[in-house]
Design a protein that fits this description.
alpha+beta; binds flavin mononucleotide; single chain; 209 residues
Length: 209
């Protein structure tokens, strides 16, 4: 599969099978993530891969307890919201069965003389994006989440994450129980300004988090 096909069909997959993933595939995906750029090639990101059943259950239970009832109550005003939130609800309640949970973490290390927090995210997100595209190319489903924020103290304790390590996102990964396919995105013409800012070419969707 070429990179354009992988990128253009890399849907957020919130329905994941519990079947295990070969360790060699996990290594391949994380290795692809390490190829991402980072400020000054500082590489201030680490990948915490959780495969142990007891730990996955601990994390899944903590997130489900914190999020399930809140997500269940969220408005689903249209099909897009319904699909997304139904998927989120399903993911939250099945997280403990997901075979691999990947926490992309970072430290405040750049620039060396006066490190700034914003550069943590600059290092984390390109790596996380490489990771999801590589997974897609191998047929593995992933979804970016910030679920960790709902139960961060419990997760930090379960995984012995030091205080100076930031958690950027948590990416559940598994064999998909949903389809990859074309993405809904604003088209090139509506997002691209040539040579000068050309006013509002579109309206941004109003989305609640
Ligand atoms: C930084 C970031 C955080 C996200 N957090 C969540 C999340 O907490 N839960 C979730 O279900 N999806 C999350 N998503 C996935 C988005 O909802 C998804 O990419 C978007 O709706 C587009 O879906 P599609 O790629 O399937 O078209 C996140 C995506 C990004 C980039």
């Amino acid at each position: 599969m070429d990179v354009f096909e992988a990128m253009s069909t890399c849907r957020a997959i919130r329905y994941l099978k519990p079947d295990p993933i070969d360790a060699a595939l996990v290594e391949q995906v994380i290795t692809a993530a390490t190829w991402a750029p980072s400020p000054g090639n500082s590489q201030g990101r680490d990948f915490l891969v959780v495969t142990e059943e007891a730990k996955r259950k601990q994390i899944g239970d903590a997130i489900e307890q914190a999020m399930a009832s809140r997500v269940a109550k969220m408005d689903r005003p249209d099909r897009t919201h319904r699909l997304m939130l139904d998927g989120t609800e399903h993911l939250v309640s099945t997280l403990k069965d997901c075979p691999v949970l990947i926490f992309v973490c970072g430290k405040k290390i750049y620039p060396y003389q006066a490190p700034r927090e914003s550069f943590i995210w600059s290092a984390i997100y390109p790596a996380a994006q490489n990771l999801v595209i590589a997974a897609r190319a191998l047929g593995l489903g992933t979804v970016f989440t910030t679920f960790q924020g709902s139960a961060e103290p419990a997760i930090r304790e379960a995984l012995s994450i030091p205080d100076d390590v930031y958690i950027g996102c948590m990416i559940p990964m598994g064999w998909p129980d949903a389809k990859f396919g074309p993405l809904k995105r604003d088209p090139f013409k509506e997002v691209t300004h040539f040579n000068q800012w050309q006013g509002d070419l579109r309206t941004y969707p109003a989305v609640d988090g």
